[in-house]
Amino acid sequence: MNTDRAKQIITSPSEIEVHYYGKPVWIESINAASGTAWVHPNDNPTHDMEVPVSDLEEH
Predict the structure, then answer these.
(1) pTM of the prediction?
(2) Could you report the per-residue pLDDT of 6-46, keeping only the tens digit for each?
(3) pLDDT of the residue at 1
(4) Are 31 and 13 within 8 A, CB to CB?
């Protein structure tokens, strides 16, 4: 995924499923300068992690 698409997903009124290495995640924010996103697994909303946007997949 690229940062522009990740930003679109964040602002979308629809829920768009995103996976990080096969696990569904919720995108919290995007840092376009570093190409990273803060996400948390859907099954563990308290476990935030910073990941490369390029590792996110839209489903």
Answers:
(1) 0.91
(2) 999 999 999 999 999 999 999 999 999 999 999 999 999 88
(3) 97
(4) no
Place of tokens 């995108």: 27
DSSP result, 1-59? --HHHHHHHHH-SS---EEETTEEEEEEEEETTTTEEEEEETT-TT--EEEEGGGEEE-
CA atoms within 13 A on the CB side of 3: 12
Instruction: Take residue 43 and report the two structure tokens written for it.
Output: 């099954």
Q: For the purposes of burial, counting CB atoms within 10 Å of the CB of 11, is it exposed (0-12), middle (13-18) or buried (19 or more)?
A: exposed
